Amino acid sequence: MMASHAPRPDAYSLQRDRLAAYFDGTARKAWIDLTSDAKVSGIRATVRAGRDRMRAQIENWLPEDLRRVRVLDAGCGTGAMSIDLACRGAEVTGVDIAGGLVEIAARRAQSFIGHGRIDWRVGDMLDPALGRFEHVVAMDSLIHYPAQDIVRTLSRLAARCDRSIIFTFAPSTPLLGAMHKAGKLFPRSDRSPAIVPVRESELRELLCTLSEWRVARGGRIASGFYTSHALELVRR
Q1: The pTM is what?
Q2: CB neighbours of 19 closer than 8 A, spacing ≥ 6?
Q3: pLDDT attached to residue 106
């Protein structure tokens, strides 16, 4: 029998598939509750508050008037960011590898009022078939990757983006490092795939390899068990 020479999946693809299984599996109900007004535990309440503050920060970095502007919400989850931006007139493509979350997002978007529109997609945010965009947002979509993989991913997104990319990473802090080692960001029954703490200085140095882009704004949100740092890349 001839041996198979199929290429081995890269680190990004392997982690992508783990995330899809997690968000479409045991964590689906937990994330529906986390991204709604449902009652949650004290730990998850801090995560919800932190995510709300991070989403507001990212949205404030984008132009207020987004009419006829194409935006990619890379890793849209249950769709809060996509809906907010569509309400400001954006033509949003909301993509996520977890079909169950995209289904929830589409359901929640049925009542949104705005001049924009949302094209919901299930799949890989790096798929070139999604087209070109003026802005890309990736909130907490890259927190499961080390610095080098984050920059490789951003490089592929940058090839299809004309104005700005806003993304978040998990900053290397003593608290986050301890939680990473313990693997206890969530209860054992629905624990997320490991979040990878990244040193900001290392990440900024690697981002210098994106020759047509520069780091503009940055901002960290810390809320109990939620710590995330946003960076804005803009074309030179």
Answers
A1: 0.86
A2: 97, 98, 144, 193
A3: 95
